[in-house]
Amino acid sequence: MLKKRIIPCLDIRDGRTVKGINFLDIRDAGDPVALAKAYVAQGADELVFLDITATVEKRPALVSLVERISVEINIPFTVGGGINSVEGVAALLQAGADKISINSAAIRRPELIRELAQNFGSQCIVLAIDCRKEADGWRVFTHGGRTPTGIDALAWAAQAEALGAGEILLTSMDHDGTKQGFATELTQAICDRVNIPVIASGGAGRREHFAEIFLQSNADAALAASVFHFGEIPIPSLKQFLTQQNIPIREARL
Fold it and tell me: Which of 102, 115, 116, 223 falls between 20 and 30 A from 89, CA-CA?
């Protein structure tokens, strides 16, 4: 069995790491490069950097920040925000990113997924899905959770895989920042629809929540932000706890 991954997520705005609740109430969480280096030292398996206002402000993700990060860390990292072209992805990968995450641009033009996969390989194309539970299922939102699309999240995940996406970054907007636990039902529903890795995001508050998402779904990785940024759950102790629950996890760094 593949070992589960623990992934800190750094939401970037104006060059700083920030965190909110339900995609709102944003507060500062520190310097992204310093945080990235600290997470490497703690034993994070990967990192995700999301430029959360790039799409709304209609600008590309911060290539200069990616360059600064790439020379400071030695674990894979994904970059997202404002990515909408082959040229934009090429610039980020050249700057040092290992994978890129797309969301709003793929909704506008799904064929972009195929174009990026053909040019760079599915292994570095991550489809981010931000969704909310509604009466008739889970629906996709774009532009940092600001814009409803009416698209069914499960169908969209399956379509994205068919187009060439290599991984799904799934965020439950209902759970985001609440620290009440991951959306296990939603996560497993997505896992049942696709054969590519699924990263669960949104809702981590305790070590037990990470155990739940791995034991109650087929998620390949769990992503969190504030509990890591503010030292509420140190990654080494989290990994030790998960190992005690017989969850296959990469070795913790003490």
Answer: 223
